[in-house]
């Protein structure tokens, strides 16, 4: 009989003009968190009091439209601890959205990227991270309180990697093409409904991988939405998966915010063209990404 570490957790989602509770599309640049969520630096956080194992906590966050949070700086680390303590008046541990891979490197379920910032972790195989106000690593399937939840293979699913059913692996990432053209917010919601987000790009290699994935999965050579927007503040570009904006591949003269109404980004597959800002209300094909 398998037993699992259980603790409470926080969920995180980006401010993208989507009602995270109902899933209904709202204004494209709403810029406020839904009721029950707490805003910090363009992200919305929600405390979930249910104690559960890591994989189930991540699934519950996804059902709310977010993920378990990742930490990219000492400031974010302190914010999460302060928020948790203010909501619970306790110093109990809570889950973060970090688990490691067969390569002994920790990855974030929020961003899908390898974690660079670390706070006294020990990076060990098949482990997940919880905040205990000193940061500790715990086995995803370790015994805690002697409570058996589900077979261990199910609880370890998110720790062991591999693309989910219906997703395709391209250059080490999981992608899904869903036919049809949608406005940016609806495209992002559709990706989230399928367990992912619009694709993000952080290097020239990833840019080519994303275009390769779109071409291979859609059979098209046109433009498509990526998860980049400056809805929150003009010129403040944010990825919908919460990852840091560190790479750009704009067409010459872009972004230009034409008619003061271009806050979302699409990229081109065919020819020499790359990124262009576009009205978020425009209909475009799109590509979703999720964890491997």
From TrEMBL:
PANTHER family: MANNOSE, PHOSPHOLIPASE, LECTIN RECEPTOR RELATED
SUPFAM superfamilies attached to this UniProt entry: C-type lectin-like
CDD domains noted in UniProt: CLECT_DC-SIGN_like
GO terms assigned for molecular function: carbohydrate binding
Name this polypeptide is given: C-type lectin domain-containing protein
Cross-referenced InterPro entries: C-type_lectin-like, C-type_lectin-like/link_sf, C-type_lectin/snaclec_domain, C-type_lectin_CS, CD209-like_CTLD, CTDL_fold
Residues annotated as transmembrane: none
Domain of life: Eukaryota
Organism: Albula goreensis
Annotated ranges, domain C-type lectin: 40-119, 170-289
